[in-house]
Amino acid sequence: MKTTLLIALSLLLAALSHTARADDTIERGRYLSVAADCVACHTSPRQGKPYAGGYAIASPLGQIWASNITPSRTHGIGNYSEADFAKAVREGVRKDGAHLYPAMPYTAYAKLSDADIHALYVYFMQGVAPVDEEAHRTELPFPFSVRTSMAAWNLLFLDKKTFTPDPGKDAQWNRGAYLVEALAHCSSCHSPRGLMMQEVGGKAFAGGSLGDWYAPNITSDKISGIGGWTDDELARYLKTGRVAGKAQAGGGMAEAVSNSLSKLQDQDIAAIVAYMRTVPAVADKAATRAAFAWGDAARSPGEQPVRGTDAPLASGGVLYSGLCASCHGSRGEGSKDGDYPSLVHNTTVGMTRPQNLIATIIGGVDREVNGVHTVMPHFSAGSYVQALSDADIAAVATYVRTRFGPGDQVTEAQVALTRAGGEKPLLATLGRLWLPILILVVMVMAGLFLLVRRTWKQRKQHKALA
């Protein structure tokens, strides 16, 4: 009887231990998914079900829709083995053999350890509710719709080596390197892209265009990058998306802060900062001072007198007075509590390019951190404040850049380009020209064929006469 009781107790303890280990693995996988910001892309922003897809990622080649990655056996990844899951995450190849586009940052996830892949797999299979709904399918224009072309792209640009700690660095630095290079995939946004949309070697973290937004230089350069930020400021920005006298997160960075970075443990944020401090500096020749160093509210002449004057209603000063000054102040000083940010010492205003300032006016700002919801209204179609034309936005952006930033002119063409999704890379332009190029090639080949045939006939006739 006593032996039987001991056996039963041992089995119970073993079962409880196994359950505890499984729960630990699920929780670890959940944390890793947060660090990798999976929910941002795989959840529709319009009250979508977690990980059920439905989010459109704007790429220069067209909209790429994130897939359903819940454990649904009909519409998700419920039939994936761990090896299938690893191949999709690390190599961008689905269970059915179809290739994913690198909007899914598998070039960074390729560095993930086997242990983390396992934890992520367990989490998605056991910790996520299945959603039996089909996500919107990606339909890029030809030739980008040919997914098999990604096999050649992977051969050229995918490094399948997992992360290897540097023995010459401490544990904090290596943890930061792993987070930045692999899980958080920071270089996917903050690095320039080449002709084939690959990250340009030697310029990692030097800044890159993300359609209408621009992910700034985050190398250690003191003028072009983050070298002028303190460790505390960098940590605060990653955790909150806001640092007075420096920057406020908008666009994709606001999403990253809201869904991922703000939820990371403090020691992981500190590790990211420690690693980023050592990223080789890359200077932007156009930058004469740090983006946050422009402007001086104390010396600003303040709001220009526009009421009762003949100033055009569409002038930058009038638009700023009517739409911006009530929040950002007549001198661009912002509110005392910082809820409405200052426009002086503001990286969005002071960047060498006005792209993010334009994108902010067009699209607004929306981020939520620890229950604090920060919103700036947009001024495009459907605005509850006022919709502005390209000319209006160019005027008010010029006013802001002149009074609080580098002082350059913002043009209607720049606004129109940003509103249309930003500058398109050469690859996208060539892709749209595939049909006329193909027709031209066919015509040239046909012409050459006829020329060769005619020459051959003439020679044949010449020999017959001889």
- Helix-strand pattern: HHEEHHHHHHEEHEEHHHHHHEEHHHH
Largest sheet: spatial strand order: 1-2
Individual helix count: 19
Straight-line distance between termini = 117 Å
Q: What proportion of the residues form beta strands (DSSP E)?
A: 5-15%
Which stretches are low in confidence, meaning pLDDT under 50 for 5 or more residues running? none
Number of strands: 8
Shape estimate: globular
Protein model, in words:
This protein is mainly alpha-helical. It contains 19 helices and eight strands. It has helices at residues 2-35, 38-42, 82-91, 106-109, 114-126, 149-157, 171-183, 187-190, 231-240, 251-259, 266-276, 316-323, 325-328, 347-350, 355-363, 390-404, 412-419, 426-432, 434-465, and strands at 56-59, 62-65, 208-210, 213-215, 242-243, 247-248, 365-369, 372-376. Helix 15 (355-363) crosses helix 17 (412-419) and helix 16 packs across helix 17. The longest helix has 34 residues, at 2-35. The protein is globular.
Features:
mainly alpha, two-stranded antiparallel sheet, 466 residues, 45% helix
Q: How are the SSEs ordered, and which strands pair?
A:
Elements: H1 2-35, H2 38-42, E1 56-59, E2 62-65, H3 82-91, H4 106-109, H5 114-126, H6 149-157, H7 171-183, H8 187-190, E3 208-210, E4 213-215, H9 231-240, E5 242-243, E6 247-248, H10 251-259, H11 266-276, H12 316-323, H13 325-328, H14 347-350, H15 355-363, E7 365-369, E8 372-376, H16 390-404, H17 412-419, H18 426-432, H19 434-465
Antiparallel strand pairs: 1-2, 3-4, 5-6, 7-8
Helix pairs in contact: 1-5, 7-11, 9-11, 12-16, 15-17, 16-17
